Amino acid sequence: MAGPLLLWGLGVGYVISGDYYGWNFGLTATGYWGFLIALAVMAILYATMVAAIAEMSAAIPHAGGPYAFARMALGQVGGYLCGVGVVIEYVIAPAAVATAIGAYVNVLVPAIPAVASAIAVYVVFTAVHLWGVGSSLRLELVFTGIATVMLVVFYIVGLPNITLENLNEVGGGEVLPNGLGGLWAALPLAAWFFLALEGLPMAAEEARNPERDIPRALMSSFVTLAALAGLTLTGAAGLGGATSVGEADAPLPTAVQNGLGENHWLVGAISSVGLAGLLASFHGIVLSYSRQIFALSRTGYLPLFLSHVNRRHTPTWSLIVPGLVGIGLVVLGSALPGSAIPILVTMSVFGAAISYIMMMVSAIVLRRRRPDLRRPYRMPGGEVTVWVALILAAVLLPAGVKDHPVAMLFGLLVFAAFAAYYFLYSRHRLVTRSIDEELRVIERAESELRG
User: Fold this and answer.
1) By C-alpha distance, which of 405, 410, 344, 446 is closest to 91?
2) pLDDT tens by residue, 1-14
3) Which of 146, 205, 210, 320 is the most buried (most CB within 10 A)?
């Protein structure tokens, strides 16, 4: 059973790959100073949201996580739509992670095409999970620790070499070179520094004392990620060549090459060790999407074949189907004229923002309708905290429209297809009816997956 340290490793491990790629496209949207503001706005969103989730996870310590919160507060429809948002987020995010892994491998071995490495990661990790080698929280902690130490080394070596001139490169020193529109477009990319942290409550069944340890892990993970985000942004932009950094699939090696030289030892080190963070996030998110899809299938919300398990107690089709979708996204992305990463990030954040809105509405509803609910942890600020998170999540939801309208449209169509499936088909074929029944099904599913 996991205590706060192992859960911290899982929470940070979900997200830490975001320091190594993806966020940097926000530099081209609004420059360093504007992106710093966007990062501060998203830090407020996640600080308030994490506080609300910590309260709900202590009161409802079930492996359903976001789905369980919304199901209890908003009923079957609300629970399903929140779960769909999580599925969209967690299925698309690994495609971005895999693309970045390919880019980092390509830095180390230019002869290996990035798309080949990305596909190989999907094949290998899907096979590993199908074989039944489950998530080891201790191994996740090791990978997270290695990736964090590498970032600290990057700061120690890089920060003394940053200059104000380099920070001002994009936008000529203007705070908002592209106005409020550029700031708004940068929000999804700033959110990438924190995306997936909200999935930590899905590890409630692994926690030694979920009522106490999940809130602690959420808070400590957020503080760690916020500190890493500010230092990574400043270090990478301040080394010089912010324009090239803002267009790179592997921004940290690019920043080192710009500021310290192409042959500097840190280029190879950060490319090699950075893979630990990328693989930790990929591994953790694949595990999470397979569990979320499995749970939704077991209760009848999604097709029942997705909850089939093999003899090693692993959800076969809940791993294979999203894996094939991810490979398809990687291949399609490789055919685009520019980088696919900001498009994938935008789509993933869109799904996440849906679940954020649903969870914050759930927090308000539970406080008003279920004052009797035992709350071992109470968020500071009460409902005001939740309203701040809800408003910022509503601002984040359509933020990708400005720079990536097609990605937003695709995300909306996918969400609409899931909603149509529920209203036209699955709501008439649900295996369970009450929240207690569904949570018991999820708990049994977790036990089955653990063998």
Assistant:
1) 344
2) 678 888 999 899 88
3) 210
